[in-house]
Design a protein that fits this description.
Layout: H1 3-12, E1 46-48, E2 53-55, H2 59-63, H3 68-75, E3 80-83, E4 88-91, E5 94-100, E6 103-104, H4 107-111, E7 118-124, E8 136-142, E9 147-157, E10 162-174, E11 177-189, E12 191-202, E13 208-235, E14 239-263, E15 270-293, E16 297-319, E17 328-350, E18 354-371, E19 377-396, E20 399-414, E21 419-437, E22 440-451, H5 455-458, E23 463-464, E24 469-471, E25 480-493, E26 498-509, E27 513-520, E28 523-530, E29 533-548, E30 552-566, E31 571-587, E32 590-598, E33 601-604, E34 607-623, E35 626-633, E36 640-646, E37 650-658, E38 663-674
Length: 698
């Protein structure tokens, strides 16, 4: 189970904002991402450009929002699923990269934005090579005056458990500079949870054993906080400088299950206690410089560094009721001290109808893991990635062409064993867009990216998971490549009353890195391999409908996916329907919101996994600088998140059940003075994602 997955639902409980109606109202911007000359219809609610859809907040959307996440939800961008309190943004089941003024940002930083400062939102569902392997990019552009400031505070506690979210941020503008300080705290402490779990082990000689787990008790902790300070300097049309110090702390990220196990062999029942979690601190630093030259040329350099010091642990124990001692007692304790550094430099040259971007980046990871359960044995792993790319954009009347090619070198090695791997991989990309008019456009795009093996997948230190199962990494893994072909039709119909998109996506990863299971005597080992590939085909329809303009709105997405996964010993198939629907009624500052989400089921390796199935109902009232909310998470049905193993050696199904029928309230206050300044507009972002080990978790 993944505690992070639950975090998103855990924090959903608390804030909810309603979608509103969007009108275009674009103003001039000094040194924003320089756009090519292009004719757009300013009156449109959504402006469909060759490489993005541009949304402009309406007055009602701003008036009913008290942070950037709420305003983003109020825009009701089709296919986009936004959960403010849960801290998640996704689109048709795919992750979304969030940027503020083109600078890659966190959900907390997006939440800290004042709605009044947001000028427009750029939705890029076909990002170019300079965005790395991002599936979709959401870029929020905010204003750029020279004086003023703001203070923003929000508290969102639950009423019946230790569960909530709190944040505060302040900005101070002076001349060409802006200072920002902020912090946030998320609390989930002792939330009741349990697991429905059944597994069947099959040995190569045909023997079988089924273990059925009945829950007795359980709890979940997910408490974390962050603080940051940043500085922006903007000299219009010449220089942009940005620097930030950020610290993130996981105080407790834990799942504790207790259950009764019945055995098909008829042996005596077992009492199970399964605990796993982690805690740790990640300070980081980033610096960015952008310099503009004559003839529309730009040079940008970005540096990022992250450190991680943390502890991941697990305890798995089985015993007979009222017995002393344990039949199975497995403990894993890993202490990480990991580092990550990223540096990128890009050159950009623009003409009236075209643009050339070329760049190079270097990412270094240095990982040190101490296994306390292995008598203090230490493993060192180093990873290095170098990436070169060039991309050219050209517009001919109603047709826009984009083509690019990237090349990535990846290397990783364990110091103690001198084991590792390296490879060169190509990353082609091409897009053709035809814009019939402002209300209809068609796009065909080919994208590709590489995924390097993670620390957990390559670490050969054996980890015992329970009385049967072990996990051992594979140091011979190679970087995998993924390719995706997407067709998208974007439309505005019935005088903007209906807006959305229809699309089809074909995906293949011919050497995807996936887990696989095998028996080694009486041990069932989970390791990792470069599989024979995953292929899937999906279709989606996403619409925003103004049922009664300014009063009643509906946003809905439905998706169908068919996929095939091939390993070296298996071939598996999966067919799935998923989607979500949000309905909002609003009148004079009052909003009533209902949301239902059915998560998509994803096949990966020999397992089908799904995120949260849940629903929410909430009421909200906005008055002057204040906003008040009250609601209920999962008022109908049951919360569900889980997985199903299809392996011939271990068939299992587990459902994570949490007492999520949680009533909550929220109080927000925003104070502003002067004019609000737009932060530095980063055109690139060097990757410095620090890794951590994983202990336990069957």
């Amino acid at each position: 189970m993944n505690v992070k997955i639950f975090t998103r639902i855990a924090m959903t409980a608390i804030a909810f904002a309603a979608p509103g109606i969007v009108n275009a109202q674009e103003t001039a911007d000094s040194i924003a991402a320089q756009e090519l000359d292009e004719i757009v219809v300013q009156a449109s609610k959504v402006i469909r450009k060759a490489d993005m859809d541009v949304y402009h907040p309406s007055k009602s959307a701003v008036d009913n929002s008290k942070n950037g996440m709420q305003l983003l939800r109020n825009l009701m961008i089709p296919t986009l699923s936004v959960n403010d309190a849960m801290g998640s943004i996704s689109a048709a089941g795919q992750p979304v990269q969030v940027r503020i003024n083109s600078r890659e940002s966190t959900i907390e930083q997006l939440q800290a934005l004042l709605p009044e400062t947001i000028k427009r939102v750029e939705w890029i569902d076909n990002p170019g090579l300079r965005y790395g392997g991002a599936n979709q990019v959401l870029n929020v552009i905010v204003a750029n005056p020279t004086v003023g400031g703001s203070l923003m505070a929000e508290a969102q506690p639950a009423l019946n458990c230790a569960f909530g979210k709190y944040n505060v941020s302040a900005k101070f503008n002076t001349g060409r500079s802006q200072w920002e300080v902020g912090g946030n705290f998320k609390l989930t402490d002792g939330l009741k949870a349990h697991r429905d779990y059944t597994e069947t082990f099959t040995w190569p000689d045909g023997r079988e054993l089924t273990r059925t787990e009945t829950p007795l008790d359980g709890k979940l902790n997910n408490t974390m906080g962050a603080a940051w300070i940043s500085y922006n300097y903007i000299k219009p049309d010449t220089t942009v400088f940005y620097a930030q110090l950020h610290a993130h702390r996981i105080f407790s990220d834990l799942i504790d299950y207790k259950g009764l196990i019945r055995l098909s062999s008829g042996d005596k029942d077992l009492i199970l206690n399964d605990v796993y979690g982690r805690e740790g601190t990640t300070p980081s630093f980033s610096a960015y410089l952008e310099q503009h030259f004559a003839h529309r040329q730009t040079l940008v350099v970005d540096f990022n560094a992250s450190l991680y010091s943390g502890h991941s642990y697990s305890d798995y124990r089985e015993s007979h009721e009222n017995a002393t001692g344990y039949l199975t007692d497995v403990s894993t304790s890993i202490k990480d001290r990991n580092q990550a550094y990223g540096l990128e430099a890009d050159y950009i040259k623009q003409w009236n109808s075209s643009k050339l971007t070329a760049g190079v980046s270097y990412t270094a990871n240095r990982n040190r893991s101490l296994y306390e359960n292995l008598d203090g044995e230490i493993f060192h792993q180093r990873q290095d990635k170098v990436y070169f790319f060039a991309e050219y954009f050209h517009r001919i009347n109603k047709v826009t062409l984009t083509g690019g090619l990237g090349a990535q070198y990846t290397s990783f090695k364990f110091k103690e064993t001198n084991q590792g791997n390296n490879s060169w991989d190509l990353r082609p990309q091409a897009t053709v867009t035809y814009s019939l008019n402002q209300n209809h456009n068609f796009r065909l795009a080919l994208t590709s990216w590489q995924t390097a093996p993670s620390l957990a997948e390559t670490n050969i230190a054996p980890q015992q998971l329970d009385g049967f199962q072990w996990r051992i990494g594979n140091s011979n893994l190679k970087t995998s490549s993924s390719y995706m072909l997407t067709f998208r039709y974007g439309h505005n119909l019935f005088n903007q009353r209906v807006s959305g998109s229809f699309g089809a996506r074909a995906f293949t990863s011919p050497n995807a890195i996936t887990p696989y299971l095998f028996w080694d005597n009486d041990r069932l080992i989970t390791s990792y391999e470069n599989s024979k590939g995953l292929q899937n085909l999906s279709f989606w329809l996403a619409e925003q409908i103004q049922i009664i303009p300014d009063w009643l709105m509906l946003s809905a997405t439905i998706q169908y996916k068919a996929e095939r996964m091939k390993g070296h010993t298996y071939t598996l198939y999966n067919h799935d329907w998923s989607g979500d629907v949000t309905m909002i009624f609003m009148y004079k500052g009052f909003q009533l919101v209902f949301q239902y989400v059915k998560a998509q089921r994803d096949l990966w390796g020999e397992k089908i996994s799904w995120g949260e199935d849940f629903n929410i109902i909430a009421a909200q009232y906005t008055w002057k600088n204040w906003q008040f909310q009250a609601g209920m998470i999962v008022p109908f049905g049951k919360y569900d998140q889980g997985s199903r193993s299809l392996s011939q050696w271990n068939r299992n199904e587990q459902h994570m059940r949490v007492d999520m029928r949680v009533p909550y309230i929220s109080i927000s206050y925003n104070l502003q003075w002067g004019r609000q300044k737009r932060g530095a507009n980063k055109l690139i972002n060097a990757d410095a994602s620090v890794e951590h080990s994983k202990a336990g978790g069957r």
